[in-house]
Amino acid sequence: MRNNKLVEGRGPGVLWYFRMAWRDSRRNKGRLVLFISSIVLGIAALVSTLSFGHNLREGIDDQARELVGADLVLRPPHWITPEVMAIADSATNRHSEQISFPSMLYFIQNGQSRLVQLRALDGEYPFYGNLLTTPVTAEKDFRRGRMALVDKTLLLQYGAHVGDSVRIGDLSFAIAGSLDQAPGQNELSTTMAPPVYIPLRYLADAGLSKRGSRAEYRYFFAYPHGDIQRLLAAIGPRLEKADVEYDTVESRKKRMSRNFGDLTQFLTLISFIALLLGCVGVGSSVNIYIKEKINDVAVLRCLGLKARQAFLVYLIQVMAIGLLGGIMGAILGVAIQQVLPGVLKDILPLQTSFRVSWPAVGEGVVVGLVISLLFALLPLLSIRRVSPMTVLRSAVEPAGRRRWDPVRWLVYLAILVFITWFAFLRMQRWGKAMAFTGGLLVAFLFLSGMALLLMWLVRRFFPMRWSYLWRQGFANLYRPNNQTLILVVTIGLGTTFIGTLYFVQQMLIDRVTISASSNQGNMVLFDIQNDQLPGVDSLVRRSGLPVVASVPMVTTRIKSIRGLTAAMVADDTAGRAGRGRRDGLADSGRAGRPGPWVFARENRVTYRDSLVESEKLVAGKLGRPVKGPADPIFISVEEEYARRELRAGIGDTLVFDVQGVPVTAVIGSLRAVEWRRPPPGFVFVFPSGVLEPAPQIHILITRVGSPEASARFQQAVVRQFPTVSVIDLRLVLSILDDILGKIGFVIRFMAGFSMLTGVVVLIASVLISKFQRIQESVLLRTLGASRRQVRTIQLLEYFFLGALAASTGIFLALGLTLVLAELTLESTFSIHWIGVASIFAGVCGLTVLIGWYNSRGILNRPPLEVLRNEG
Questions:
Q1: Cα 164 to Cα 176: distance, rounded to the nearest angstrom
Q2: Chain-centre distance of CA 347, in angstroms?
Q3: Of 64, 267, 473, 609, which is least surrounded by CB within 10 A?
């Protein structure tokens, strides 16, 4: 005999293990293909996201200069002073200025109007790259006269063309061309307020540069022959002292890498979860596969093969299919990576090119191979306990399992360590990595616990008086070779992802949804100057519209809190942290001190002597009107901002810079604010008698009944008050829904891999247990059951599985959304029962459909087949 060395006591050679693994696999090709399919999607998702992240980092490095458009960008809170300009302009004569703010754009040809982000530009910016326009010459033409570049989407929406006229403020501009792309711009950033460029020299004549208007100032500098880092070392402290923030190519590159690193990190972790689901399917499939190989292993043991040698034969099989699945997944992942830039194009402000990232491919294959091997080891370990006597005692010796197997627990530990290590590589923080692993473990344990609880409850308490078909359908949930545990875990976790995404998206939309009640507004007019307020108010009333609210707004900055200034807090933070950070994130708020960023913010405040419907007083009392210079000024502060940001409470003193004038105020009360309800909420509310003389703008809220009435009213406002901006909140809701839909599509695209993996595992689980199902159905038919009855039993089983997986996944999704609402989004969460019902019905229907489709061939087996097999 070829294998007589086993009988003679000599150990087999290495090639023998591979030959035995190959010979055994030839008789089980279908089973092994199912093993591979369970992990291919997960590895494909992982390789695609890793490769995409690599290409994105390369794109940021290559295009960072064009995304900034300059070497240095100054962001002062107001018009730059000559002293600051002299600091930045000391090394170059090339600079540009830009002032941007929301404004109304009026299309003269058709009389329609739209809120846009107006960017008044002077100089040659961008110094690197170009404003991409159609025609190409429009990028230079609009700078020479009274012309405008209008966002391409806006031109399409309103049917405007090059050469048409638009009115901005008090002036009309000819459309020089469509703006196709600007530095640092993506599709989502331009959806709410599309950009429009005009020359800066016309801003004053258009009446758009009045004091109190909300504007962002940008100053761009090019240093073609200088070292920007050396220059910043010299002028950086002086800019910080002048309260001027700045950006460079390097800082923008780091920020973009960090921001989009979070995106790729999130997508990678979703892909990794999909891979883990596939590995759970692999473990379940190998478990059933090994159960069917127990007799073969026992025969080999009788021929003299040791238990560890039999274990190696099947370990080689699993490693080979894991490697093959990794290669197939890598090939599919490279193909998917070509699709990802198109899926993410609305989010990315840069062009990403496709390149095969071999390190990403290698990492994906290795991670897939290791994690699938770890999951497959759990059922493979039972081979070590197979006794040669199993051949004779297979009816009473279940497979040689023991209650305590230290090697099995070492594998469990290795799985947790590997998951945590992989999460750390992506997050670079052990705390987050351990939280990720812990969250996954809790989800797996919860889903597994629900499945085990269901099996116990069905076995223990199921009413025996129910019909025979129902009893059989429920009994299949706990019989040998049942798939209850594996399907509840995989389908349930996929449902959790899809459900959480849906609930968060609906919660964000609800956060800004305006109620249909008659006392709330759906149109906001802002940037109303003091001298315009009576006329705007009169226009609203003449149009038959109600004035829901009229709110003054003043721009201020905080100079000190309890005597602490920005410089004092920054020095104290730097001293305690051992390093300084301009964003104030290092050691913020320790010992009750506010972060330095509080002093850098511009605050829009209002003044009144009463609360509005969206506010509730939680501590103190509102200040009285100030009637003289000696009267104290008691302000009201939103409670969360006072506690978390200001680190201040009732009785603390704040000094505000009201456009150059210091104003000392005392916190007299704290309010809770419902931010999503009109009128607009404010962090700071001053009493009357203080801010009235300050430069300010007003916000007026009204309610319009129909889109047609909204269009007519906006046209009237733009004609009479061209510098007043109008927001139709119904349009905002539509745009928000579109934005969330685009972001949701990206997440659903990746979360879909988890769901698809669950579907593949479901298919594999049904096919792997098909032989067991054939025996059961043939026995039932031999006893007289009809095909319809057998089919009903199977459909009931899969309906119960789908219902349990869907309900458990939805429950987890609701809990996760509630946590996100309370801790991250700070929003009120309400359940959308229609969405819950849709997700439940979809998951149940999909489970039943797949279970029925893959089990349909079972009913075609004749009853005599079981008798022949037994014989």
A1: 9
A2: 11
A3: 609
